[in-house]
Description:
The protein is an alpha+beta fold.
Amino acid sequence: xxxxxxxxxxxxxxxxxxxxxxxxxxxxxxxxxxxxxxxxxxxxxxxxxxxxxxxxxxxxxxxxxxxxxxxxxxxxxxxxxxxxxxxxxxxxxxxxxxxxxxxxxxxxxxxxxxxxxxxxxxxxxxxxxxxxxxxxxxxxxxxxxxxxxxxxxxxxxxxxxxxxxxxxxxxxxxxxxxxxxxxxxxxxxxxxxxxxxxxxxxxxxxxxxxxxxxxxxxxxxxxxxxxxxxxxxxxxxxxxxxxxxxxxxxxxxxxxxxxxxxxxxxxxxxxxxxxxxxxxxxxxxxxxxxxxxxxxxxxxxxxxxxxxxxxxxxxxxxxxxxxxxxxxxxxxxxxxxxxxxxxxxxxxxxxxxxxxxxxxxxxxxxxxxxxxxxxxxxxxxxxxxxxxxxxxxxxxxxxxxxxxxxxxxxxxxxxxxxxxxxxxxxxxxxxxxxxxxxxxxxxxxxxxxxxxxxxxxxxxxxxxxxxxxxxxxxxxxxxxxxxxxxxxxxxxxxxxxxxxxxxxxxxxxxxxxxxxxxxxxxxxxxxxxxxxxxxxxxxxxxxxxxxxxxxxxxxxxxxxxxxxxxxxxxxxxxxxxxxxxxxxxxxxxxxxxxxxxxxxxxxxxxxxxxxxxxxxxxxxxxxxxxxxxxxxxxxxxxxxxxxxxxxxxxxxxxxxxxxxxxxxxxxxxxxxxxxxxxxxxxxxxxxxxxxxxxxxxxxxxxxxxxxxxxxxxxxxxxxxxxxxxxxxxxxxxxxxxxxxxxxxxxxxxxxxxxxxxxxxxxxxx
Length: 765
């Protein structure tokens, strides 16, 4: 029956397949996808490890099966527009039998679901292509579009599905056409009034991107956008709205056909099972584990290029040559060139056209000082050459800690303040501090702290906004920079496993602080895990005032990466414990509440936070740890909050921020938009009026969690009213404490403490 269903679907869509897909991987390649022999052993191992090691100790039973089935379907069709209701009824047995199938090592249902999805998607894209090329869309009709269909039923018939896609395309076309029209009107108004036109060539902040898309669907994964320059270096004309949409769905289909190979289908199936326990447990195929290690160490060995798979010919297009990297040093390869083959040293070059991009990139990466041979063509494919490049270590500095000294003038008094932005808790897992290539975020922050001490700063802001966490060890090391023994090691976090409870403290021979001046910690809704450990510990000990969104993200769980034996089996990342603050409260769901609320525009969003993730574990409490406050910050918070509130009440910038927050809340709750041109344009214009102001006034994290670059000169940095007010709060704190520092603990001996040796790279872990 399964093969019959696949054959019927293939026959139904094959004749309608768009001509531009002819050179891309075929549907026949999808029909032939099947699990490799060792995948059955992987599935059985996953089904054994999850109930054995997960902190919930839940059996791998029917209730888990139902959640896993929902996860897998959502991974394919989160907006309920590709599958038909009848398709999912074919897989109804897996709603309760998912776990049993994995215990048997049977993954066949996942491959069948993948085939059905691809066939349905191919038919949808064929319909979209025909609609855009042959029909005139009517924007005068009083129609609406439900763009968030996560709770909507799947269409029952092809006719119902096509009507859904017709409305979807009308919605996206309106977003593009009206967006450009409003841009032109804004430029004309600026020219008329003599103002400078907006530079729209730069990446928009999260505020603009979210506000201007309102009802747009997420961009397709994989494919890059159209080239911005021709082979001669001249700018290409902007693609028409029709071309933009055709390219979008062309890229999405080609990416689906290319990237979702047999291993990726298996990984999705097992990932869905792991995430049925909680949203942070995962199965990681070997390539995914490599990426995880790379993110944690902030380095990789490769050639130093940013690559994207071209959906025109399936080659890897070079989007950026990283300065100082091996490719830049070689010199002959430029942005826009394409990689069509990869060889290792003197071995034959392998063709990589239309091969999964993640596997091609793995061939390009490799051990330091080894040679990779790239077969490269120019942008137009007119020339072809082979270029040997010696791999070297590439530092990924975008996520590294950065700092500077800020000047703050408040009530006529100028103070100097230290500022550190920490985007992630990174730390090299396979090297010791004295080995080359070792990275530690706590060491990087310690270097900034040393500079702040040298320059005599009056206080420091530790900015953890957008920091989703990382290394637990680094969170403890970082906390140790700001707390002291009481009189023994100061507890930082409590960890409860299935049978054990233990406290992670600072180091027993730590005699003093690295930084003793007043401290403010900035958080937002995206500050999670290790960020919440640090913010919670510094708040509970009275060491710091926490400012920012109403609360942090709320991730209070510990994941352990476990190998599965053979290297080709991959690894499991399983939630094995829960975090608890030293006051006994879990950070799960509730996060860390700010002492002083300085909200971002996302603070009022009802769809952000751990509690909104599928299958999140609940909040809980245990007994507090034994600790003494370091500084009595809670007694100062009411006065600090009153001063901050009074300042913000007089600020036009914060008044506009309130408007922006209201609009974002309304936007996040909006599910239906008009497809009538005039009504939609008015809505988009009204949204822009507030969102454009936000772009000018605040520096928000972009979609990947990376802060936009700011100049070293604090006076030249981009306006960030949350940071500005946090610095004002810090200045108030310095004034209220009259220059006092956190009290020292008695020095017990004269030797260099282990924690400081570790930070300096000379001690044992």
